[in-house]
Write a structure and sequence with these properties.
With 272 residues, the chain is of the alpha/beta class. It has helices spanning 36-55, 67-79, 97-115, 124-141, 163-172, 200-271, and strands spanning 9-12, 24-28, 31-34, 60-63, 84-85, 153-156, 176-180, 191-194. Strands 5-4-6-7-8 form a five-stranded parallel β-sheet, sandwiched between helices. A three-stranded antiparallel β-sheet has the order 1-3-2. The longest helix is centred in the last third of the chain and has 72 residues, at 200-271. Residues 255-259 and 261-272 have low confidence and may be disordered.
Length: 272
Amino acid sequence: MLLEAGCHFGHLKRKWNPAMAPYIFMERNGIHIIDLHKTVAKIDEAADALKQIAKSGKKILFVATKKQAKDIVAEKATAVNMPYVIERWPGGMLTNFPTIRKAVKKMASIDKLMSDGTYGNLSKREILQISRQRAKLEKNLGSIADLTRLPSALFVVDVMKEHIAVKEANRLGIPVFAIVDTNSDPKSIDFMIPANDDAKDSIEVILNACCTAIAEGLEERKAERADEKAAKEQAEEASEVKPRARKARKEETPAEEEAPVAEEAEEAPAAE
């Protein structure tokens, strides 16, 4: 599957990064060929880690601003309900997160203006300006509107193109997952997947594997929470049953005790 998708095609030999030498199988016609055995092992490693992050209820931010990866990343990230950046990486998005949150809140306040009727009192020019501002915010930040805190991990498609995002994540100690080609440096990546980061099919195959693992993690989390809820309800029912049982016992006890007293009272005249 990886072979069919062209995951093994690296860059030209003259463009290579020597740090990628352990993941290169051979050179053919001046192009480096990536060792797919190592790619498979690294995909499994990354998928396991992503699954655990999703299972713990944390967010993974997907980053891919290159043309051939945009649509795939948007589709796959949306399917697993994760935030993504596919337009321009807003500088300081991680290191200056409160400012980005303010911009997202600005978008929400514009939506409120539209819904509560305030829009009707504005002039055409003002409405046009606000609409343009809203469209710009939606384009750049719409996909991260639900990201209320820093993500727990970053998934990057091209390390060289998204170097600012990688640097910000490294600075904050956020683990980085990335598809790394033969021309890139894997040293700043926590979970690297050596593969072709230019071919659409290659990106899709790897994202499929990773997003499937995330979906599994989310399902396991849902199942665990359902079990916890059921256990809690059972415990509550049991705690309610105990007082009822005690009350029933108390109500029965006086009736049993009264019977012998009545018998003694009846026997007393016979003794006289």
